[in-house]
Amino acid sequence: MPIRLARDATLVRFPSSDGLQLEGRLTRRDRDRGVILCHPHPLHGGSMLTPVIMTAEQVFQESGYTTLIFNFRGVGGSEGTFGEGRAEVADVTGGLAFIEETLGGSPRLQAVAGYSFGSFVGGTVAATELRVRFYLGIAPPLNTYDFGFLKAARCPIALIAPSRDEFCDRDRLKALTLSLATTPWLRLQDTDHFFTGVLPELAQACGEAIRWFEQPPSVPGM
Smallest Cα–Cα separation from 107: which of 214, 35, 37? Predict the structure, then answer.
């Protein structure tokens, strides 16, 4: 699946919850579905133009979600400086508020998705914000960051992890999934941390994760 910007995508500026002006890209779809998309590490070239997170953006759009992808503080035209993953939480919560303002209220299905560093920041918000109904973490760098906060999450969790991830040992991934309050949806892909050569397969996995969230398995006898 080639990556392409939606024709109706709009460049926007919105405030983080601590007052910085951030740049982003908004694409309107259903008003009852919204997603905030978080890019990888700012100090290693991550931005809202990173192909992996753009792949997820496109799949969410095709699934009917209004998407907001943005540059973390200090990246591109966003104000501020790198905040080591802690200050960036305010960027995501600012995005949630902007989505609500744009759509005239909180979407019925509000999701947060992130890749690598973005999965850490986005997951931090998903674990504490009751507005977030679904979290998709792509290549969580468990060797670098402690994702134990996900134990407190009450929303459904989906994880897409490379089987040859330089930044995530398989044992750490297994330990995380076993520690969560509910069983997450998990997909392993035969690739490295950067999804080299497998973006179409990543897109398919993102679509399957979204469908899993929106159409949970039926309960026997119901």
Answer: 35
Cβ neighbours, 10 Å, residue 207 = 16
Whole-angstrom distance, CA of residue 172 vs CA of residue 78: 33
Q: Per-residue pLDDT tens for 125-174?
A: 999 999 999 999 999 999 999 999 999 999 999 999 999 999 999 999 99
Nearest to 3, CA basis, from 193, 208, 200:
200
- d(CA 170, CA 118) in angstroms, rounded, equals 20
Q: Is 136 helix (H, G, I), strand (E, B) or coil?
A: strand
Q: Give DSSP secondary structure letters for 65-134.
A: EEEEEEPPTTSTT--S---TTTTTHHHHHHHHHHHHHHHTS--SEEEEEEETHHHHHHHHHHTT-TT--E
Alpha-carbon distance values, 96 to 29, 129, 146, 164, 185 (Å): 16, 10, 24, 33, 24
Predicted TM-score (pTM) of the model is 0.95
For residue 215, the surrounding DSSP H or E stretch is none
In the chain, the amino acid numbered 147 is: F
> Which residues have a Cβ under 8 Å from the Cβ of 141 and sit 6 or more positions away?
116, 117, 119, 120, 165, 167, 168, 193
The token duo for 122 is 């986005």
Residues 6+ apart with CB under 8 A from 12: 23, 24, 25, 26, 68, 98
